[in-house]
Design brief:
The chain is built from six helices and eleven strands. By secondary structure, it is of the alpha/beta class. The protein has a single domain, classed as Rossmann fold (3-Layer(aba) Sandwich). It has a nine-stranded mixed beta sheet, with helices on both faces. Helix 2 crosses helix 3. The radius of gyration is 16 Å and the shape is globular. Keywords: Glutamine amidotransferase, Transferase. One of its GO terms (cellular component) is cytosol.
């Protein structure tokens, strides 16, 4: 591949942006194109030299209205053409829906910094994850910020790389160039503050906002490694195309 690689970011609502991934991509020479799904902006088309980042939001991958079905169709093309794509939260679920997997209500919603026992949410790497370049250099267990009530059901065609007792597919590979993260490791300070102020699911646990500084001190270095690894894998994939 010649020229500047392009990262096509699909954002479903204003408060759920790319977070620290934006700075990581710029540092690595990516050109960012952001599509705001709440407007009438057309979705970016799969093209040579493009990778895709699908962000989270309160919609469901099972929605039959709005622009979610359109996003599922885009993901079908990305999977078929093995175009580099990362889905976060809803983004993972939409990728899974496009692959034909079941997206269902989670046995328990995972919200904020702390689990029901008052301990930080953590993910444990599977053997596949410990041997995968996406998770190279990451600790085990992994810290994470959670904000979801649905999950991708276990499926043999999905390679689970990190899991938790309440949600099997926390980090997963859905194809040779397709990955997803159920929780949020892209979070930065501004996003954390805004989410606790604006998100209806987080308002009932707004007292957890006091953990933002300490949580982000642990989370952000992990997010930089994880998404730095992904950007490197995506760039390699584009260069080989």
């Amino acid at each position: 591949m010649s020229g500047t690689p392009q990262l096509c970011v699909v954002q479903t609502l204003p408060r759920e942006g790319p977070g620290l991934i934006h700075a990581l991509a710029m540092e690595r020479g990516w050109q960012l194109q952001v599509t705001q799904l709440w407007t009438d902006q057309p979705l970016p088309s799969p093209q040579h030299g493009r990778a895709f980042l699908l962000l989270g939001g309160p919609a469901s991958a099972n929605d039959r209205h709005g622009r979610i079905p359109e996003l599922v169709r885009l993901c079908q093309h990305l999977l078929e053409r093995q175009i580099p794509v990362m889905g976060i939260c809803l983004g993972l679920q939409v990728l899974a829906k496009a692959k034909g997997c079941v997206v269902r209500a989670a046995q328990q919603r995972e919200l904020g910094w702390l689990n029901p026992q008052g301990q930080p949410w953590t993910l444990h790497q599977t053997p596949a994850g410990r041997n995968h370049p996406l998770l190279h250099g990451l600790p085990d267990p992994l810290p994470v910020f959670q904000l979801h009530g649905e999950e991708v059901a276990p499926e043999r065609s999905v390679e689970t790389m990190a899991s938790s007792p309440l949600c099997h597919n926390q980090i997963a590979a859905l194809g040779p160039a397709a990955y997803g993260v159920q929780g949020h490791m892209e979070l930065d300070q501004g996003m954390a503050e805004r989410w606790f102020a604006e998100d209806d699911d987080l308002r009932p646990i707004a007292q957890q906002a006091r953990f933002n500084e300490a949580g982000l001190e642990t989370l952000m270095p992990v997010g930089r490694i994880l998404y730095g690894n992904w950007l490197a894998l995506a760039a390699e994939r584009l260069a080989a195309a």
